[in-house]
Amino acid sequence: MTIHEFSVTTADGGRRSLGTYAGRVVLVVNVASKCGFTPQYEGLEALYQKGRDRGLEILGFPCNQFGDQEPGSDAEIQEFCSANYGVTFPVFGKIEVNGPNADPLFTYLRAEAPGGFGPAAGPLYDHIKATRPESLGADEVKWNFTKFLVGRDGTVVRRFESMVTPEQIEAEIDDLLD
């Protein structure tokens, strides 16, 4: 199985097959408008501008499961991304990434790259340990702006937790684009 076998809901309520991105390197990110990591939109857009002609796609998936940090409607989210960060990469319809209503794409991504998350995450680790300790050892997405890097063949290469910035993963993305 690969991400190319999934379809997702677009911001306007339509459906898009991720098979559309076959042959491209994809960075899948759960995003939010009112998060301490929201400024990562700027870095994500910069990565997209640098890499899209070489085969990079960035796919944003708004999620309100972490501290109610994405309360807006799909239309409001689109407006926010465009007006505040000039986002041109696709930002899809709002989804859940954990739990019984998790979008199947994220269930797959989590299983393929469970990720590590420990005390090095600093205050975010402390917050999660205090509020959702059961998620620390699980495959769950821990917070907004978790990133899943996917190769051209649609298989998951690696997971990056929220505090890892787009700039910090640029070299790894470049390696896949070359």
Automatic annotation (TrEMBL):
One of its GO terms (molecular function) is peroxidase activity. The keyword Oxidoreductase applies. One of its GO terms (biological process) is cellular response to oxidative stress. InterPro entries: Glutathione_peroxidase, GPX_AS, GPX_CS, Thioredoxin-like_sf. It comes from the Bacteria. The active site is at C35. Keywords: Oxidoreductase, Peroxidase. It holds the Pfam family GSHPx. Belongs to the glutathione peroxidase family. This is Glutathione peroxidase. It comes from Nocardia africana.
